[in-house]
Structures are given as C-alpha cells and as structure tokens.
Amino acid sequence: MRRRKEIRAAHPGVYVDHTGPLTYEQREWVAVLAAWPAALSGESAIPGRRPAVIEVAIQHGRKLDVPDGVRIRRTSGLTERVRRNSRPPRIRLEEALIDLMSAQVATGDVAAAFAELTRACFRRPGLPEAVLRALAQRSRVAGRPIIEGLVTDLRDGACSVLERGYLHRVERAHGLPRGSRQVVSEATGRRTVIDVRYDELGVIVELQGRAVHDTAEAYDADAERDLAEAAAGAAETLRITYGQVFRTPCRTATRIAQVLRRHGWTGAPRSCPDCPPAASAAA
After folding, report:
1. What pLDDT shows up at residue 210?
2. Which end of the chain is more exposed for a tag (fewer CB within 10 A), N or C?
C-alpha cells in the first residue's frame, strides 16, 4: 500500500490514506496516536481552538518522540481526566481549562485566564461548578486561589473581564456598596439584562464591553431601555468603559460614589493602594 501510495507514514506507525497536506483534524489524530495512550490537552482540548502547536497529555514517566508541531504534557491520573468518547480523545473541558488558566495566571495574565473561562462557559452554564469540583480533586494547581476566585466571580454573575474588573478594581477596592448583577429588566416590554444595579439607590451601571456593544442595534436597545427606566423614574444609568475600569479605576470610583451619594448613599469611598494623592483627597 505504501509502494502504491495508497497510504503514507505521517509518523512511524501512524498512516494517512492520501499524499496531500494533513488537515488540522488529521494533525490532531497523528499527535494523539504518535503518543498513544494520550489525549489532546491544554488549549488543544478546548472545542473550536486550533493552536499552531498541538498539545497532548501522556502519563508521567514516559519518554517518546513526537512529530514536529506537537508538545507533550506529562500528567498524573491521565485515565480519569480523559473524555474517551471524543474524537480524538481529549482531556475533559474543565480539566483543560484549569491547565490553560493556570499557565496564564503564572505569567500574570489574569484577564486572559478569565476570558478563556467566559468563552468556555458561554454555552455551558454548569461549567463553573464542574471546574470547582475538578479543582477540589487536584492536589497541585499553580495559581489555585486566583482560579477559584475567577470561577466564583463568573458563577455569581460577573460575566466578562470588564465586569470582573469593575467588581474588584472599582466597587470592592473603593468600598462602594455591592450592586446586584445580571438583573432582568422588562422596562421596554421585552427582556433585557442589566450589568450592575444599585437597587435601593436607583442607579444602574452598564459596562460597555466591545463584544456586546459593537453594533448600532445594540446601542439603540440599551438607549431605549435607559430612556424607559428614566421616564418611569426608575433609575439613572452610568455607562462605564474598559479604559475607565482598567486605566482610571480610582477616578471612576470617586465619580460613581458622587452619583450614589446624590441618590441617597450615606457611605464614603475609600482609597485603595493604587489611588493617586488627588484621587485620595477627592475620596
């Protein structure tokens, strides 16, 4: 069959039935079979992802050669972590997320780790609980406290990097009252979701993430809801951007506190370790 070019070796012991370039799916199969028993892991195990270097997990203690463009991850308890009914076999999604987020947290890129989590959980609402269970069962995970915090925030309603940034960098860091998150509103006659609402004060904070607000229709829908809320005397809406959360969180907190106090909040914002002297004085 090789002489007749019906098959060719993609790796010693692994064959394909054509002579042209491998598809990406074939590259995944070659990577797994060349390292067998093995499974796609890390970013390679995330559905829809196609990293340039394919990562496969094998059991600790093994030594082997793999094709170019393949990276090996040695792990314990491989059998228990693999979805064998996937094609090709891959590490369970919650386990792969932990590995990927751990690597990103180790480099200091917490925002990227949270973005990975939100993308994976978009179509699987129960995934945060699965990730927490998998974390509890693993004895060693680099960055465990941060990962647990990210998953808990997502489970409790902070559904984007921007929302989590607001929760931690603006609201909590400066002692603002805790808002309700992902509040359903039917002020326009149809169901919409409010990012943050300070219920007793009648103040809404909408976080302007590009993924949600990059179309004229999205802006129109938000503006219509804001107008309906205002006409009913229900709430004042503040629109906060990435720059205001990640570049100037202290100034943003001070100004939001002024609005909240105008609506009846009797507390006062506190300075965080990053507050410049001017912001501290204003607070």
Report:
1. 46
2. N
Domain positions in the chain: 8-85, 94-155, 177-282
Looking at the chain, how many residues does it have? 283
User: pLDDT for 87-135, tens place per residue?
Assistant: 999 999 999 999 999 999 998 888 888 888 888 887 787 899 999 999 9
Q: Which residue type does 6 have?
A: E
Two structure tokens written together for 249: 């969180």
If phi > 0 it is left, if psi is from -120 to 50 it is alpha, else beta; for residue 198 that is beta
Strand 203-207 vs strand 236-240: parallel, antiparallel, or unpaired? parallel
Complete DSSP assignment for 137-194: H-S--TTHHHHHHHHHHHHTT--SHHHHHIIIIIIITTTPPPPEEEEEE-TTSS-EEE
177 Cβ contact list (under 8 Å, min separation 6): 198, 201, 260, 265, 267
Span 167-178, average pLDDT: 94
* pTM for this model (two decimals): 0.65
Which amino acid appears at position 111 of this protein? A
